[in-house]
Amino acid sequence: MAHYTDYHSFSEAFIAFGSFGRAHGLNIGINENTESLITAEMLWGEEDYMKYAIRSLYCKSPDEFESFDIIYDRFWERKKLTVKSKVTYKNQTNLTKPSKASLVMLGEGESNEDEQNEARSTSGANAKESFRKTDFAKVQDINSEQLEQLADELWNQMNLRLKRRLKMGKKGHIDLQKTIRKNISKGGTFIDLIKKKKDVQKFRLLVLLDVSGSMDKYSFYLLRFIYSLRSNFENVEAFIFSTRLIKITEYLDAKNIKESLAILRHQADNWSSGTKIGSCLKDFNERYAKRMLNGRTMTLILSDGLETGDPTLLEDELKKIKLRSKKMVWLNPLKGMDGYEPIQRGMKVAMPNIDHFSSAHNIESLLSLEKILINA
Amino acid sequence: MFNHPSELIPKLDALDYVVDEELATVLFLMMQLKKPLLLEGNPGVGKTEAAYILAKLLDTELIRLQCYEGLDVQAAMYEWNYQKQLLAIKIQEQSELSAEEKESLIFSDEYLLKRPLLQSILSEKTTVLLIDEIDRADEEFEAFLLELLSAYQISIPELGTVKAVSKPIVVLTSNRTRELSDALKRRCLYFWVPYPDSSKELAIIKKHIPEIEDQLANQIIGVIQKLRKLKLDKTPGIAETIDWVKGIMALDIKELDEFNISQSLSCILKSANDTRLIKQEASSLFQ
Hints:
The structure holds two protein chains of two kinds.
Chain A: H1 10-23, H2 30-42, H3 47-58, H4 62-77, H5 113-117, H6 124-133, H7 141-167, H8 176-182, E1 204-210, H9 216-232, E2 236-241, E3 245-247, H10 257-267, H11 277-287, H12 289-292, E4 297-302, H13 311-324, E5 327-332, H14 345-350, E6 356-359, H15 363-367, H16 369-374
Parallel strand pairs in A: 1-2, 1-4, 4-5, 5-6
Antiparallel strand pairs in A: 2-3
Chain B: H1 5-14, H2 21-33, E1 37-41, H3 47-57, E2 62-66, H4 73-76, E3 78-80, H5 82-92, H6 99-106, E4 112-114, H7 116-122, E5 128-132, H8 139-151, E6 153-156, E7 160-163, E8 169-174, H9 182-186, E9 189-193, H10 198-208, H11 214-229, H12 238-250, H13 258-263, H14 272-280
Parallel strand pairs in B: 1-8, 1-9, 2-5, 5-8
Antiparallel strand pairs in B: 3-4, 6-7
Helix pairs in contact in B: 1-2, 10-11, 10-12
C-alpha cells in the first residue's frame, strides 16, 4: 500500500497520491495533479484547508466526496482503508442461459411435449416467424442462439424506428405559409417569423426488471431487451430487483453484452431468489425517485407480480412512482399464458396504478412496446 | 485579493453569510486558480446564495443565467435583433452603400442582443456569472458551455470569436436531478453542499433573525434536524428553516409544542404526505 513516507520529496508524494486516488476510482488527470500542487504550495502546512482544497479538485460527486476522506487519511496518515475497489471486468465467466428452472406457480407445472417442440420443428422464413412467438420459457438450448440473434435484430430495428420518429420535427424551422399570412399586414416584409412547433420532447425511460426465481426463465431475455433499449436511447435508467434493488445502468454501457451480463450475475447474489417488489420500490423511491422521475419519465416494470412481501407496501410505493412519472407500463410474462388473470395479491393491488398492462413472454410481445413508446 | 481561505470567513460573515472552512477554502481556490465552481446539493442549502454573496464580497455585478429545459444559444448567449436589422435594410434601400457595407452594418454590435453569457465576458470589470440549476438544461447546452468555461471565449459566426475582456468568476449550481457530463465537471472545482449541522444552522438563523432567543432557536433546529433524518418527500432546507422561524416569530410563539408545530407546518413541509406523517408523529420530534 502506498504511503507518503515512501517518497523522498513532497511533490513526488503528491503525484503518488494522485495515482493512489486514481487507483481508488477518482478521476484524476495531469490537470488535477498540477493544480493540486499549486494549491498545496499556497496552503502549505494547513492540513484541513489543504484537504478541502484538494477534495474539490479531485472529486466530482457526493459519493466521491465521501470516499475522499478515507482515501486521503489512508495515504497521509496510514489509516485503515475501507473503500470499495472497482469491479474488475477480467476473468468473469460467461453468463449461462437459464435452462432448467421451472415455472412454479399457477399449478401449471412442466409444460407439455407439444409446446416444447413448438419452436424446434420449423425452419427457414417460417422459423423466424415462429421464433417471434416462442415463449422464452420454452426455448431450447439448440435454438436459443438463433433466437437471441433475431431478438437483437428486431429490437434494434424497433429502436431505430423510434429514434427516427423522435428526431423528426426537430428544431423550430420557419413555417413559410403562416409567416407570409401573418406578415400581409406589414406590406409583405417578414417582420414576424412564425416557427414550426418545437421538437418533440425526449422522454426518459426507467426500467425495473424482476430477476427473482419465478422470473428465472425470462430475466435473461428481458435483460437483453433492456440492453438493446439502453444502447439506443440516451435517457434510460435500469434497475434489477428481487429482494433488493441494484442499479445497473452503468453496466449496460459496456461495449460487450456478455461482459456486462457476467458482471451483473456477479453483482446480483440475489438473482433467482424470492421477490419483495414493495420494499425494492420503496428503496427506489427513497434513493433515486427524485432524481430520475419527472413528467417525462415512462416507467417500465418487467415482473410477474408474484409478491412475497406486504402487498399494501407495494401499492403505496407504486402510487408514488406513478405520481411522479408520465406513464406506468407493466409487462408481465405470465400474461402470455392462456387464461391468465392478474389476481395474485401483488398484481391485484398494482393493477389500478398501471396505464398499460401487457405480456412480455416472447419477442413479439416486447416489440409491441413500440406503440406505447411512440405515444410516450 | 485574499492570501488565505480563513480571511474569507469573517468577511463573508460581515455580509450575513455563514461559511465554514470547507466552503471558504473552495471559494478561495476558485479565485486563485480562476476556475469555475460547481456547487451541488439538495434544494435550499444556499448554493445560489453563495454566488450572490461572492458578488457582494468582490463588489461586482452578478449576472445570472437561470437554466431550464430547452434553453438555447439565443436565450443564453446572443441573438441578432432581427426586426431592427430588417428595418435597417429598408432604410438603406435608397442609400449609396455597397452590399458589403450594408452587410457589415447590419451585423454590427448595434444589432446584437447580448444575453447573460456574452454580457459577462464583455464586461470591463470582472463579474460573477451564476449559471443556476444547470441540471435542468439539456446535455447539448452543457457541451456548448465547455468553450466558455475553458477558453473564456464565444464563437459568433458573423463576428468571429469573441474573447473575454475580463474573465468572469463562474459559479454553477445543480440540484443533481441528473448527472452532469464528465467533460463539464472536469473543468470545474466541485463542492457538495451538505445540510448544515446544528451550530452552523443556529448561526445562520441568528444572522437572519437576530432577535430570536437561543432557547427557541435551539428547539427549532432540533426539530428540523430530526425532520431531515426522516424520509420525507421534500426535505426542508435552510430556506425552509428561516421561513419557519419567521412564521413562528409572526405567530408570537415563545416555546414550541405539538400544537404550534402543526399550526406552522406549512412553512417547512411542502407535501400532503409529509404533513400527514409529521402531524401523526409531532410528539416524537421532541424526544
